[in-house]
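quick one, two chains, predict together pls
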Amino acid sequence: MSDNKNVKERDISVSGGGNGEGTNVFRSFNYVGTKETIAYLFNDWSNSFNIEGYKQRFIWDVVKIDFDIQAIVGIFTGAWDIVNDTFISAIVDNTRTRIGKFRPYLVLFQIPMTIIGLLYWFIPYFFPNTSGTFVAKLVFYYIFNVFTETAGTFTSVARSGYMSTITPNPNERVRLITLAELLTGYMGEDMPRYIFGFMYDMVTTGRWKTSLRSIFMGMGVTCALISSAFTFWFFLVSRERVPQSIERPSIKEGFKAIFTNYPVLLMCLSDFLAGFGVGTSQDNYWIDVFGQNSMINTLKALVSGISGPVGSISYAFVAPLRKRFSSKFLWVGSDIYGDAVVFGFFLLGMVNNNYLKLKPMLIGYGVTEFLSKLLFGVNKVINADLWNEAMDYCEWKHGYRMEATTGVAKGLVKKLQGVFMGTINNLVMKKVGYIQGRKVGTQDEQTKKWLFYLCTVVPLVTSTLGIVPKMLWPITKKKREQMYYELSERRSKIVSDYLHSVSDDNDYEISEK
Amino acid sequence: MKCPKCGGEIKFFDLRPNCRHCGVNIMYFTQNDNLIRDAKRTELESAAARMIIARIKAAFVGGKAQIIRIAAAVLLLSSFLIPFAAIYREIGLPLLNVSVLGLISLFKNGSPAELRDLVLSLPFPKNAVLCVVPALFALSALISVLIFAVLLLSFLDLSKSAKLMKNLALAGAVLSLAAQAAAVVCDFAGTGGAVIKAGFGAAVCFALFTLTFSINSALLKKGLEPAYREFDPKRRELLKKVRSGEISLDSLPLPVFESEEERRERLNDLERALKAEEEGKKS
């Protein structure tokens, strides 16, 4: 086709939605340019550029907050979390500004939140050498948590909603998610975890004569500043491109959408049922069973690193698997596959009490990492995309988007449960005889056994019902195509009708020359 | 900023959705224009990105020769682990293995001073002869590093980089051949006061330099053309003009260019969507 000959044929009138050749500016194109794509990658990278995985160790061994106190504080902060989530989501969903619904919160809150968040890593300096029940420390910890949780709710609610609005093209969205998940690993998003693991090992094995609180403070602050800078850059250069309804939905309609949006309901139910999982992080098992005599975090990183490329290669499976199988099949299948891998690791640990032996467990860990990484790409892409699909489904069915409210509803279920389960998990740790502040590797034999159970078979069994709602996912391939076609036509019409209504002489038309 | 409809001044911190002068909803008013501009810009920028990827593919995995070229460059670097020669003060432990590992060991064990003393203790031209093999080793190693660096950047200009690698490989082959010859000659003739035992590292390097030379010559003869998508070069040229301000995005059509294949794909997608919509309405 000659480009010059068909320039006129490609003239489009937005109000007309095309010249019969099917061009609609809300469909068929990509909108996220190179700079914004790079910023998107760095934003995704910055989400993992932290040492969150060691936060529990920070509280247990450095700050030292008693388990019982943590359990009680957890109930109160959890309850406050639930309350503020509800009205913050309503505030966000009812926000309309000239720069969008979510961007004001992301841009305005980012810097203050970062500065305040840095104080977290200085708690051991504010309250040095204090017991787990030191009142002033507990009060500070509680107030700090409540404050950061409240402000953090605005940014987290806005951020998760924002991701579904940076492009109206679902294929472009999947492309961005896939690109981010594939490349951010190579950009070193996990580096803080590996570097900190090495530093932690060096301190706990006595090779470095420095304190745990110093390394936590140093790494925590550094990661927070770097990741915050890149996140802020992304929010500055990106834009919301999915128009929200001019009329704000009523709060009643908003909450109704949670129940009438069937996909969201299924996701909430799945999370709820899976949320009954009782357990602890696998890192705790490795540190408390093997951490005394070996550089366990470093060893784990090396073993995991061997299968590193597999994770990247797994993204090559995403497109052919999505073509061949439905989203539902992939969602359910990957869940079952992951459970099977964990169960295999459990069985290995039980044979000849292997869970106490470093070599076989490291080999087992390497194998489970390899197997898990085979479906890494599919898991990451499917989970993110299904949520975006559910948001578009709400707009298709009801004419408005309720990203914040439905996001909060999904999170609310988890949190309500989390308040309860968090308390249970803390009490379980106490029940299995875990003693806080003890030198790593010196917990009782029975405790070590339970640490292994609590990171393998116990969460597996207690969360297994979460798979049932996934089997009822309603958006088939054909329905998805119908939904996106109708959405693009409707969006185009709404904008075009609005432009007609505000034009000076009522025959406003934008033509591409 | 100014209101896109009435031109009224809107303050930076005034985030209200509607212009306070004319009442228009700013996001809605600019939605289409912004989307159209974004779509055009992204089409042009994507073309530039695709062209880089096409060149990377052509440089590294475009054919068997390119893959062998990568292997040869990596093997070439590794071949410097094999000693070119070994220098002894007397028969016994070597003072210096002329290889990468040997150099690391020399500095780690603190023997550079000993080597320097040996060189200085010998009269000219014996001390010059002692330095020939290490010097040729160093030059060959430098050339192999340069070849690897050029290979990594070869996607920037496929032909020039192949030519440069070919010339560097030729120079490297000459140097490594000279190094091997010098090691053998020194081994037999001796330098008096020091003993040189010839290794085969230089021979391996020579073979690999020759392989690199042959592959790059073959690639230049065959031609290294990346497979660009139709209209991508035109899109890139247009992008440069847009960035320099020569052309404005608003003056371009949407899509800016569309090949027959792209148009067919788009209309097929639309047909599938219309079918799905009909079936959905019926059910």
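Residues 2 and 323 of chain A are 32 Å apart (CA to CA).
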